[in-house]
Write a structure and sequence with these properties.
single chain; about 350 residues; alpha/beta; Rossmann fold; Dihydrodipicolinate Reductase, domain 2; 2 domains; seven-stranded mixed sheet; six-stranded parallel sheet; 12 helices
């Protein structure tokens, strides 16, 4: 039995962790952490788990939780996990952080884009970027996992094989991405109110979005050289889902069969990455509620560009599901354990 604790359990990502872990017979949630709801019943806040748990919410004491749990999930704002992190905690429990605190190897990059000092840079060299399809072997032995961002997960999986196989010019990458409003979190904010988002669509974080350096860093590792991208996210009036459309110039003549073969080289044996047949396009509706990532492409011969498309559920593969996938690897389990949910439709 894996004993798991969740700090930030009443945010959207934390609640999704609860939903996924409560379905398992081999995991016990021993701590529902929530700064805003201490002492309140978790199932009163989230009625979808009524009668499945009678636990009350506790505070954000990571040190205390480490005495009880085998693994700690932190679904918290930037800066919290790093501010609490100690060697003693990591000696007692493994930590999977869903914030950006440990995603960068250079603290200066974090501080530049997130505008806060990094509280624990000494742990950055140890932290493993938790994208299982790429870092599976390192994740298995890790104590500290930096769970990737939702946009970076979708963008990177969409682009990775093309970058690795040098089929595209990495100096020409443009990423257009769209996300449902749950990506903004559960806190009350005027831009996320119903009347602000319904029947509308808008770009945001143009040329400044915090996921830009994360995508660039991971693509740079794949390319073996620095990669700079243009990345523009958009908010769309739906609850869940991310759709990425990426563009890049081809480095030479290529057929659809060759592009498909390049994707299959990396993803043919991946349970959660579904490479679509040429001519098909991904839709968020076909991944909703699941840990799957759907990938597709189209060669634009007129412009000599490759159009690469991907979709995920931002709450599952983009957050909680990927965190559980990482936990499975860390504890020697098949990584799809508890994550075989078929996408919900309609």
């Amino acid at each position: 039995m894996i004993k798991a604790g969740i700090i930030g359990a009443t945010g959207y990502a934390g609640a999704e962790l609860v939903r996924l872990l409560l379905q398992r017979e081999d995991v016990q949630i021993v701590w529902y952490g929530s700064k805003s709801y201490v002492g309140e019943d978790f199932s009163y806040i989230y009625r979808n788990v009524a009668h499945l748990t009678n636990e009350t919410c506790r505070d954000d004491d990571m040190a205390g939780l480490a005495d009880l749990a085998d693994v700690i999930f932190t679904a918290t704002p930037q800066g919290f996990c790093a501010s609490q992190m100690t060697e003693e905690i990591l000696q007692k429990a493994r930590v999977i952080d869903l914030s950006a605190d440990f995603r960068f190897k250079d603290a200066d990059v974090y501080e530049k884009w997130y505008q806060i000092p990094h509280p624990a840079p000494r742990f950055l060299p140890e932290a493993v970027y938790g994208l299982p399809e790429i870092n599976r072997d390192r994740i298995r032995g890790a104590r500290l996992i930096a769970n990737p961002g939702c946009y970076p997960t979708c963008a990177f999986l969409t682009l990775y094989p093309m970058v690795r196989e040098k089929l595209i010019d990495t100096d020409t990458i443009i990423i257009d991405a769209k996300s449902g409003t749950s990506g903004a979190g559960r806190s009350a904010k005027v831009p996320s109110l119903y009347c602000e988002v319904n029947e509308s669509m808008k770009p945001y974080g143009v040329a400044t979005h915090r996921h830009t350096p994360e995508i660039e860093e991971q693509l740079s590792y794949a390319a073996g050289r620095p990669v700079t991208i243009s990345f523009t996210p958009h908010l769309v009036p739906m609850n869940r889902g991310i759709l990425v459309t990426a563009y890049a110039s081809l480095t030479g003549p290529v057929t659809a069969e060759e592009v498909k073969a390049a994707y299959d080289k990396y993803y043919a044996d991946e349970y959660f990455v579904r490479v679509m047949k040429p001519g098909l396009v991904p839709q968020t509706r076909w991944v909703e509620g699941s840990n799957f990532a759907d990938i597709a492409f189209q060669i634009d011969e007129r412009t000599n560009r490759l159009v690469m498309m991907g979709s995920i559920d931002n709450m599952v593969k983009g957050a909680a599901g990927q965190a559980v996938q990482n936990m499975n690897l860390m504890f020697g389990l098949p990584e799809n354990t508890g994550l075989k949910q078929i996408p919900v439709f309609p």
